[in-house]
Amino acid sequence: MNNETVAAANPRGAAMPAKAYWGAVLLVLALVYSAWYPGVFTLDELDILRQAAGGIAHDGHSPLLISLWSLATSIHSGSALPYSVALFGTGLFAAAVLRMFFHAALAWILLVGFLLLPAVFTAFGLVTKDLFFAGAMVAVVYCFLRFLQRRSGWWCAFALVAMQLAVMIRIDAVFAIAPGLLFCLFAVLPARLRPALLRLTAALICCAVLVVVLMANTRLANRFVFHAKPYHAEQVSMLFDLSAISIQLNRQLLPTDRQSNGNVPVEVLRSRISPASADSLIWSPDQYHLVYQTDADHDALARAWARAIGAHPAEYLRHRGEYLARYVGIRNDSPWLRGHFQGDESMVDKYPTDGWNRVDSPVVRLFERLIQTTPAGIITLPWAWLLLGLLAWQVLAWGWPNTPDDAALCAGMLVGSALTHTFLMGLVSAAALARYHTWPRIAIGLAVALAIGSLLTRAKPAPAGGVNASKLSGQ
User: Fold this and answer.
1) Which N-terminal stretch is annotated as signal sequence (predicted)?
2) What does the alpha-carbon distance between residue 161 and residue 320 come to, in Å, rounded to a whole number?
3) Measured between alpha carbons, how far is 426 from 63 in angstroms, rounded to an integer?
């Protein structure tokens, strides 16, 4: 469909040449980049930097990202280059998703609004694996939509590559991928599979197999391509769970080799545990702390953890319920959960000449005051953001006058992914950090942009190469 047809289908917006659209997209992304430069970083980036300089040691952080940082720092020190890859990659794929549904001028306006949403703006300031992961997930959604539209083997391959990259960046990407992948599989399975429950069961089995393959491929690549040792990040959650159950029972359930000096009294655990994070149990100023290391006996810890959960399910569920409430911000309405506005100070102090500097932007300071000191900041809390996403999806799904059902489907993928990732991370993670919500923030921000765009047009968008609803649904 050419630009004239697009303009005729939506007379409110004049056609914008493709080059002008993408030029305008790059301009607004450059402005966001300059506002956040050199980006917000954490201690994780310090470990990534060390491995990039000294060789990959473990897979606690993505070996793929470590290789990227190694290449980037060989060109320019600091975070500027990795940050540009994360920000521009995420922003360009978001612009591509919006362009699928709306004419160029409206798509650009919606992109600007999307980027200025407080929860999204703070997410785009991160120089962490979380923003890289979010960018990979936007690419996954875009490839899903194109595959469903065209049923092309190429787009199937692109979707598989995007999913694999997302899982290699963060293993918990499988939580975010599952909803969209399940719908795609359900749509492409033969309609003759009756009843629908049989078709859904087949899709679930295929989805589970693909998820296992993605995780296995990641492990193989980490071991034999990047030569990274296993880090066993699940240790933290197991130590966290065992400590919480021990405190409730007033009985030590942790293996002796996981207690410093072989003895950490339950009273010490009780005085130091935080329902929102395991850090205070592992990093302590004295001899009482829990042992978290890659070469420990992981099997013994896993057995102790499984026994504790099997014998004391009520205590486990109570602990996880408390943590989940804090992870989504219901019981943890603290400023730091609303967004990160400054990088790790130790890196700023140690490596200022290497490009690790403080974010110093009046725009960022304005957003920080808005989010952390005014009632409006509540919308950036995870629970409020998830509710906003559900509202945006429902506006589309209810068929608001002339709302395109393909936009509703895309919003459903985005919101479903955000919900699944948030609640499953709340069940397995051990730190209620704002950056863990980077993908849900961006996913729901896109869903909100789709809803607003549909309300503004009040007509089915018909951009060049746009999505065909009947093809998406498999009808």
Assistant:
1) none
2) 34
3) 25
> For the purposes of burial, counting CB atoms within 10 Å of the CB of 229, is it exposed (0-12), middle (13-18) or buried (19 or more)?
middle
Could you report the per-residue pLDDT of 276-328, keeping only the tens digit for each?
Answer: 889 889 887 778 889 887 777 788 999 999 999 999 999 999 999 999 999 99
Residue type at 440 in one-letter notation: P
Residue 211, number of CB atoms within 10 A of its CB:
19
Find the distance separating the first CA and the last CA of the chain, reported in whole Å.
22
Residues 438 and 122: their CA atoms lie apart, in Å, by 9
Alpha-helical segments (H) within 151-283: 153-169, 173-188, 196-220, 234-249, 266-272, 279-282
Cβ atoms of 122 and 367 closer than 8 Å: yes
As a whole number of angstroms, the distance between CA 419 and CA 179 comes to 10
What residue type is assigned to position 345 of the chain?
Answer: E
Structure confidence by residue, pLDDT tens digits, 448-457? 999 999 888 8
Query: What does DSSP assign to residue 289?
Result: -
Cβ of 428: how many Cβ atoms within 10 Å? Answer: 12
Domain ranges of the chain: 17-229+343-473, 234-293+296-327
